[in-house]
Write a structure and sequence with these properties.
It contains nine helices and eight strands. The chain is an alpha/beta fold and 261 residues long. The strands form two sheets. Strands 1, 2, 3, 4, 5 and 6 form a six-stranded mixed beta sheet that branches.
């Protein structure tokens, strides 16, 4: 904590909801995380799109196809030690779909990878990055988040991230009365889920994060909460409950500390 403020983000509070032990391992004990291939791939694709829009905003007089080609090559160079050939092939397919998706787009891009650090009640420092902020053709501000998830069933119903981003922009502009948020699912032919919020809707997020602060500060045990998410946890090698859950899921019977295949 800095100046007695708790650093929070949407991803942190989601981890807290999913598993108190993982929250402790990651954000209190600050144990190292694994280099999961899906995270690396997501960062690679995000960098391609960030490069692309940075070049567009710099007013380079080149076609989108050429700008994307340069952007792809730049990202491929910076991630060459970690991405695989399969990653590259899938990213090429995603990027080609994305170029088709934006072909007739009449929106105006205002910023990319917009960083924010919001002081809430002098108790929380809410931080993060917004992938893209744009004004849509109808004049409504739109906060956009790219998703590289393979499974999108639950993400389609979870608007906390978009609502938080909308809250950040409303704090910076008192004239905003309506704001839009969009998830673009890049691995699903750029399927887009759009949600509109009123100013009244998004200003409730201050209370949401203050409530998380209370829950985190009052948490004493940080117990594991085993679930299918254990498959993607960084800490199953030190979390006995998570390890046992995965062993049982794989059909391995456990007796105390002894495992029998």
């Amino acid at each position: 904590m800095e100046d007695n403020k708790l650093f929070l983000s949407v991803s942190k509070v989601k981890v807290f909801d999913q598993c108190k032990a993982k929250f402790s391992f990651s954000y209190i004990k600050k144990l190292p995380k694994k280099d999961w291939e899906h995270f690396i791939f997501g960062k690679f694709v995000h960098e391609i799109l960030e490069n692309f829009y940075a070049k567009k905003l710099s007013k380079l007089m080149l076609s989108d196809q050429k700008l994307m080609e340069f952007s792809f090559n730049d990202a491929k160079e910076s991630w060459k030690e970690k991405i695989t050939q399969d990653n590259i092939k899938e990213a090429e397919l995603i990027i080609n779909n994305f170029l088709s998706y934006i072909k007739d787009d009449c929106s105006t891009v205002l910023s990319i990878e917009k960083e924010f650090n919001i002081n809430i009640g002098n108790k929380i420092l809410l931080n993060g990055f917004i992938d893209k902020v744009q004004t849509d053709a109808d004049g409504v501000l739109n906060v956009i988040d790219y998703k590289t998830s393979k499974k999108i069933k639950y993400a389609k119903r979870d608007f906390m991230q978009l609502k938080t981003y909308a809250y950040v922009l409303c704090l910076g502009d008192e004239s905003i009365e309506k704001i839009r948020g969009s998830y673009i699912f890049l691995r699903h032919n750029c399927e887009t889920v759009v949600k509109e919020f009123s100013r009244k809707d998004v200003m409730t997020m201050e209370g949401v994060f203050l409530n998380y602060l209370k829950k985190i500060e009052s948490e004493k045990l940080f117990r594991p909460m085993p679930s299918p998410l254990c498959d993607y946890c960084d800490y199953t090698d030190i979390c006995h409950v998570g390890k046992e859950y995965l062993n049982n899921k794989k059909g391995i019977q456990t007796f105390g500390v002894q495992e029998w295949a």
